[in-house]
Write a structure and sequence with these properties.
The chain is 33% helix and 22% strand. Helix 5 packs parallel to helix 6 and helix 6 packs parallel to helix 7. The protein folds into two domains: 65 residues, no CATH class; 179 residues, Rossmann fold (3-Layer(aba) Sandwich), CATH 3.40.50. It has eight helices and twelve strands.
Length: 302
């Protein structure tokens, strides 16, 4: 399905529209649903975004909450590598990294999903080899908590270690899907950025989706250079905005690694489409009109 969003300027607003079966042709079709990647680039905060997805937003939200909540988790089956910064940090950075890792992993619910934990500093280490065994994962997270951060921030070494593991899988099955979250808690020197870009390009050869997560004193422009796509770079927000951040990161990356920007809906029951447009005022929602089309000829307004 193709849609054209609201075109009236004004802070951002997430619009949820209900489409009923009479508007649809017979059979099944594809459509975009709640495209989380757009959320990352809003100027209003994660707390504001989460408000539109949280209980108590009113009858509109209550009607879609059960369906929208399904997009908060990832139930895909693929290989998932977390490459974590274990270099010398500031304060409780390592505890924050471990906390974030555990919260993220809870969102990946498919028992067939295989997970690996890799740390990097002056050297890189595989804390948890690739596994789908949840008991092994639990032990791996315990070992992660026991790591003592030290050394320099050699992100490229962590990416290379992940790439070496992915290469083994890819050589046996070039259709294997894999994804890497690379987290850095500080700025990188120019040589490290260049070396990390090289490893990022290598991962692309294995059809791996790479996402960069920056926290503390990380530099966004460096992460852009390494990943090569702004939609795949995230910065850790304030603690009270963490839920919206995790929903966006998991929802976006899961859709990408599974190879689709669309979901399927069957005619015969009501369902919801999500539209996002920047610069709209929540106070003037009744004054806006959203125009969208279900095919090349029919345009609807609501």
């Amino acid at each position: 399905m193709e849609s054209s969003g609201p075109w009236i300027p004004g802070p951002g607003l997430f619009l949820l529209l209900l489409l009923l079966p009479p508007l649809l042709s017979a059979g099944s079709f594809q459509h975009d649903v709640l495209n989380w990647r757009n959320f990352r680039h809003l100027d209003f905060g994660w707390k504001t975004i989460h408000r539109y997805l949280s209980p108590g937003w009113g009858s509109l939200h209550r009607s879609i909450r059960s369906k929208a909540s399904k997009l908060h988790d990832c139930d895909g089956a693929f290989d998932f590598y977390l490459v974590l910064d274990a270099s010398n940090g500031e304060g409780n950075t390592w505890n924050e990294i471990c906390d974030l890792t555990e919260r993220l992993l809870k969102r990946f619910t498919n028992p067939k999903l295989r997970i690996s934990l890799i740390t990097y500093s002056s050297v890189s280490n595989i804390i948890l080899p690739l596994t789908s065994d949840r008991n092994e994962l639990k032990q791996g997270l315990q070992r992660l908590r026991g790591v003592r951060p030290s050394g320099t921030r050699r992100l490229h070494d962590g990416l290379k270690r992940a790439g070496d593991e992915i290469a083994k899988i890819y050589s046996a099955n070039n259709k294997a899907a894999s994804m890497v979250y690379a987290l850095t808690a500080g700025s990188l020197d120019k040589w490290t950025v260049w070396a990390a870009m090289r490893e990022s390009n290598r991962l692309k050869n294995f059809k791996t989706k790479l996402y960069a997560i920056g926290m503390k004193n990380s530099q966004r422009n460096q992460l852009f250079e390494i990943v090569g796509a702004k939609t795949q770079v995230y910065e850790l927000p304030k603690p009270d905005d963490m839920e919206g951040f995790i929903v966006s990161l998991v929802g976006n990356s899961c859709k990408q690694v599974m190879g689709g920007d669309t979901y399927y809906a069957c005619v015969g029951e009501s369902y919801h489409l999500g539209f996002y447009a920047p610069d709209l005022s929540p106070d003037k929602i009744s004054d806006y009109t959203c125009r969208y089309k279900l095919d090349k000829n029919k345009v609807y307004s609501k």
